[in-house]
Write a structure and sequence with these properties.
The chain is mostly helical and about 260 residues long. The protein has a domain of about 170 residues. Helices cover about 70% and strands about 0% of the residues. It starts with a helix and ends with a helix.
């Protein structure tokens, strides 16, 4: 990344330093991945798994089925958040935030097809990563999809059919994630409309990390309905059934002899 932004041919350039969007996105992905692993490890230490089986054992099959939907949705939302953040690195790397500074339309269109496909960029798929219009539209689409998914998930999870099944930790996490998602959308739109002021742009980038953190927190808090925990409970139940059957089978076998 330093090579692309501060190479020998750019030593005198002090006002408009640029780096490769590919290297910037790779650097951001590695940083977010490292952070996510560290956060997950920290949450494991703060909230050990010793109580997971007891929580899951107290739930009915219908409750477990419902909570699996919430957990799958939270995993999907967290994945979308990460993809949106990575697409933001391409926006920053291509300086795409200083173009199409209107919302929700771009150049008075929902999808500016004529600008999104530049035939001078070969092969054409590189438009996804290097074309200003395409890069910005991708980020917008991912951001709106993420925000809609968060609102949908929170509406479902906090409804009367699901809310009572959540632990306080999971309920708090969903509320924080929803709040962070709304704030992140507002910051993103403000950054665009105001032509990327540094302070708001930095807050927007920090907001992506906060939103990712809240998503990981929700997924972690719903571990009590993870496949591993449910399978371990099923095995324990099966072993108990066998243990209960064996004492009764002993006398019956003795009588048959």
């Amino acid at each position: 990344m330093v090579k692309s932004g501060l190479g020998e041919d750019r030593r005198g350039d002090r006002k408009e330093i640029r780096v490769s969007p590919y290297r910037l996105a790779t650097h951001l992905t590695m940083a977010f991945s490292t952070y996510s692993l560290l956060l997950w490890t920290g949450l494991d230490l703060l909230h050990p798994s010793s109580r997971l089986k007891s929580i899951a054992s107290s739930l009915s099959k219908d409750a477990i089925r419902k909570l699996k939907y919430v957990r799958s949705g939270s995993i999907g939302v967290t994945t979308l958040t990460a993809l949106t953040a990575i697409s933001g690195a391409f926006v920053a790397g291509n300086d795409a935030g200083n173009a199409y500074n209107t919302f929700p339309l771009m150049a008075d269109q929902w999808i500016p097809w004529d600008d999104m496909i530049d035939e001078s960029i070969q092969p054409l798929y590189r438009n996804i990563f290097e074309n200003t219009a395409t890069v910005q539209w991708d980020h917008r689409a991912l951001a709106m999809t993420t925000a809609s998914s968060i609102l949908g998930l929170s509406t479902m999870a906090l409804s009367k059919n699901f809310s009572h099944l959540l632990t306080p930790q999971a309920r708090r996490g969903i509320i924080v994630m929803t709040t962070a998602g709304i704030g992140q959308v507002c910051l993103g739109i403000s950054t665009l409309l105001l032509y990327v002021p540094i302070n708001i742009a930095a807050a927007h980038q920090l907001g992506s990390l906060a939103l990712l953190s809240s998503g990981l927190y929700v997924v972690h808090s719903l571990r009590y309905v993870s496949p591993r925990v449910i399978q371990s409970i099923s095995k324990s139940s099966a072993m108990k059934d066998v243990a209960n059957i064996l004492p009764r089978a002993g006398p019956m076998m003795a009588k048959s002899k």
